[in-house]
Amino acid sequence: MLRRLARPALAAATTACAVAVSVTSDKTATRTTLASAASDKNSTPTTLASAASDKNSTPTTLASAASDKNSAPATLYASWFCPYAQRVWIALEEKEIHYNYVEINPYEDGLLPGSFTKKALSIETKRRRYPEFVAASPRGLVPALVCGDEAGSAVCDSAVVLEFLEEQFPQSPAMLPGSPTERAHVRYWCVFAQEKIIPFYYRMLMSRDEKGREAAKNQIIAGLTTFAQACDPAGPYFMGEQFGTADLWLFPWYDRLLTVGAAYRGFEVPKTAEFARLDAWYSAVRARPAVASTLADREKLIENYSGYSDNSATSDAAVRFRGS
Ligand SMILES: N[C@@H](CCC(=O)N[C@@H](CS)C(=O)NCC(=O)O)C(=O)O
To answer: How far is the CA of 93 from the centre of ligand 1 (A)?
Structure first.
């Protein structure tokens, strides 16, 4: 969804986001983050200095290191663990768009220091902690992107933001193929992954009994097998040599299946030709610098999903995907 922002200060700061002319891999580049705001209601956005010591801080991005000093960067509101946000994060990196990353924690903190929950904060609490974020994402879900035209605008929901980026930055590397037929093909398989694979990842984690977990696992395997059959046979990417939307769309969940799914539910990929194809796809996607720069620490990611594995989650995803 696209919203006009009523907030003049934010609009003024984002009137001219641009595609970075050159991307450097300056590891000391700064990255705005609100991570510490989660535990300090009075705090203002912090910089890399505090993010570096934050348990949730993620690797420095490539695109944020780009130095087009004449244009205001876009603002990405994301959570380091969020697969939906990771889609947009990867696209921003691939498209070399100049942006600042702002960390949002939409969930309650855990009881132990540094521990996580998947219990959604109320929208009032989110608005109090992260007013600019909720102005950009009225339901308080990450990701959201602010990338202003003259009036200033905010876009949220990963699917919508990805489409927006293609239209807003036509001169940047395209994530969708050139022909309408190919674009329709990609969109079809994105919807397929969204409906036939992704929900079952959450259901596998949240199911209370072995029967429910096995049923969800079988759905995942069946969905992934069908997806693999739709991949370009030569690869390595879904559409062949060209990395794009179908790849960044599914990758965050495939990565979590192999880490989080394996840790909590013993998820393993079968030894089939289809999974050999997906294995090659996964390695190629993971190795891309733009993707690698968005990867979270494996152990921390596993720990972060405990709220799904013990079925205590009250997140939007938990409510949508919890099975019987
Ligand atoms: N359909 C949304 C889903 C986004 C979403 O569920 N994000 C999660 C984090 S992974 C979130 O913000 N949860 C907050 C909540 O459940 O209150 C999209 O594609 O962007």
So the answer is: 20
